[in-house]
From TrEMBL:
InterPro entries: HATPase_C_sf (IPR036890), HATPase_dom (IPR003594), His_kinase_dom (IPR005467), PAS (IPR000014), PAS-like_dom_sf (IPR035965), PAS_4 (IPR013656), Sig_transdc_His_kin_sub2_dim/P (IPR011495). It holds the Pfam family HATPase_c. Keywords: ATP-binding, Kinase, Nucleotide-binding, Phosphoprotein, Transferase. It comes from the Bacteria. Residues 247-340 form the Histidine kinase domain. GO terms for molecular function: ATP binding; protein histidine kinase activity. Its EC number is 2.7.13.3. This is histidine kinase. It is an enzyme of class 2 (transferase). It catalyses: ATP + protein L-histidine = ADP + protein N-phospho-L-histidine. SUPFAM superfamilies: ATPase domain of HSP90 chaperone/DNA topoisomerase II/histidine kinase, PYP-like sensor domain (PAS domain). Residues 328-349 are annotated as: Disordered. SMART domains: HATPase_c.
Length: 349
């Protein structure tokens, strides 16, 4: 058995702590010779405890601790010019898999003013790093799968919309044809929502691009003469969670469809404007048209499916609905404020 280097009497307590530690520890002299090693260190790295003390760090085991960069950092720590904090190394031994180790080192004042002592702590993070990589891979795979699903759903919705349009051309009943057209418009708008979500990477959705694409889809399917009717988007730089964007998009869809159906009879020209502004957690969504305005009394159309959809969606958004005369036209304002409640909307769809 090699002789343990001589240490000051007061270092005995440090030696006792190191040897009995449950964590892999090395007690080193300033020239990187091993003064003591914990039993857990010897077990972790398959080293005979009787061969450790008195050897240089680079000599223990089969020389796998001969790492020039680690030795340089330890010497710099002993001189006071550096510190080793959570320094990660790849530990390699012949015919064994590489292990990831995190080392920390600091000098110890053990009462011997003539020599600097170092305490080196080693943590094996191989399994932890493997688990982290596995989780990252799963998150990435799930994101890719979700995007693929959303893309396929969007494609399927477009096929359904095409079938609805073909059915509308074949039916004789004007009422049935109208219902099929309405269903077609709604399906196409939801398909547009899905396409936008498929590019959001599961994170925040920028509403300006989102509403612009949505309104382009609605205009293409519902506006025969773009020179007569237009849909404009004025949205700030807001970005919201994907699920919130879906609900907002469906609200915009229903309100735009409502305006296109009722605000511009007899080939009346005009425009619909979608505006969204936010400040912190508060936001306001306004859909305004410059059409014929709100009907009153017995001339007012009955609330339809679109109204129920909007009311239900706004409730989930903790929003408040206000219907007002835009002079000319109509403005529907949906706002979210702290402790705000929802009110009924009387527009027809």
């Amino acid at each position: 058995m090699q002789k343990i280097p001589t240490v000051h009497f007061e270092a005995a307590s440090t030696l006792a702590v190191v040897v009995s530690s449950n964590e892999p520890l090395l007690f080193l002299s300033d020239d990187l010779k091993v003064i003591a090693a914990s039993a857990s260190f010897c077990r972790a790295f398959d080293i005979d405890p009787g061969t450790v003390c008195g050897q240089s760090l680079s000599e223990i085991g089969n020389g796998e601790w001969a790492m020039p960069k680690l030795a340089s950092l330890l010497k710099a720590t002993a001189s006071g010019s550096a510190n080793i904090e959570a320094y990660e190394i790849d530990f390699q031994r012949p015919n064994q898999k590489t292990r990831q180790l995190v080392v920390n080192a600091r000098t110890l004042d053990d009462g011997d003013i003539d020599h600097i002592r170092l305490l080196l702590a080693i943590t094996d993070v191989t399994d932890m790093r493997a688990e982290a990589r596995l989780k990252d891979d799963l998150v990435r795979d799930n994101a890719i799968l979700l995007q693929e699903v959303q893309h396929r759903v969007a494609n399927s919705l477009q096929i359904i919309a095409s079938v609805l349009m073909q059915s509308a051309r074949r039916v004789q009943s004007e009422e049935a044809r109208g219902h099929l057209h309405n269903a077609h418009h709604r399906v196409m708008s939801i398909a547009a929502l899905q396409r936008q979500l498929s590019t959001s990477n599961g994170g925040k959705v920028e509403l300006r691009a989102y509403f612009t694409q949505l309104c382009q889809s609605l205009g293409a399917s519902m506006i025969a003469d773009p020179d007569r009717l237009s849909i404009q988007v004025t949205v700030d730089d807001s970005a919201v969670d994907a699920d919130v964007s879906v609900r907002l998009g469906l609200v915009v869809t229903e309100l735009v469809i409502n305006a296109l159906k009722h605000a511009f009879p007899d080939e009346r020209p005009g425009a619909i404007v979608i505006d969204y502004q936010s400040s912190g957690d508060d936001w306001t969504l306004t859909v305004t048209d410059d059409g014929i305005g709100m009907a009153a009394g017995s001339e007012a159309p009955k609330a339809g499916l679109g109204t129920g959809i909007v009311e239900a969606l706004v409730k989930t958004l903790d929003g408040d609905i206000q219907l007002s005369d835009a002079g000319p036209g109509t403005a529907v304002t949906i706002s979210h404020r702290e402790s705000a409640g929802s009110r009924d909307i009387s527009t027809a769809a």
